[in-house]
Amino acid sequence: MTPPRLISLLDQFDFARERLAARLTGPVMDSGDGSETAVGPLTDAEYLWEPVPGCWSVRRRADGPGARGEFLAGAASGEWGRDAAPYPHPWPPPFTTLAWRLSHLAEMLALRADHTAGSRSLTRDDIAVPGDAAGAVAAFGAGAAAWREALLSADDAALDRVGHCTYPHGSDAEEPFLDIVWWVNQELLHHGAEIALLRDLYRASAGSVPR
User: Fold this and answer.
1) Distance between CA 201 and CA 85 in Å, rounded?
2) Taking the complete model, does pTM exceed 0.70, yes or no?
């Protein structure tokens, strides 16, 4: 039985996940007022679009990291990786592409799911970075589904347990699990909004780079 305190956060997660998935795949999306707007599936060109110079994105490992990146995150066995640098990160932060943001979301969801209800051993080095739009959308869907299953495994006592999730790249070790659930929701909401805006900008600019 789902703990009552989790129900509203689970509903919010489902809303954000489904809205972003529709925004990425079409054929229609809910504009927010109940009306439906036609939208096409994300293309590879749009996925990898760099709207300004010096973006962080996902890149072929053979090409190396982009500007101010020091390495490519993700499974070394994969053809692609995501621009990254050790902490402290570059300041001001590089503008990140739709590909970077979607890869970040998929990785975060998959790792937090594993560190909540899985082996609690996966690292960023275990997560493949897709180099194409269809692969990235599928990875997001798989990560979101895994995180939802992890949420359903939590009882009421787990919601108050500090360190219930052992995800190593956040404050999970110092926070009650309920706060981590809230944090993941806001990550999905704000990165989902950024991804939607990048789709709008791509459409409006026809994929050109502003001068």
Assistant:
1) 27
2) yes
SS3 state of residue 89: coil
Assign 211 a pLDDT band (cuts: 50, 70, 90): very low
Which residue shows structure tokens 């959308």?
A: 137
* Cβ 73 vs Cβ 123: under 8 Å: no
pLDDT, one tens digit per residue, over 85-112 is 998 889 999 999 999 999 999 999 999 9
Q: In the chain, where are the structural domains located? A: 4-205
Alpha helices in the chain (DSSP H): 4-25, 44-47, 98-117, 133-152, 156-160, 177-205
Tokens of 80: 């692609």
Give the distance from CA 105 to its chain's centroid. Answer: 1
Which tokens is 138 given? Answer: 């599928």
C-alpha to C-alpha distances, 197 to 56, 80, 145, nearest whole angstrom: 17, 24, 24
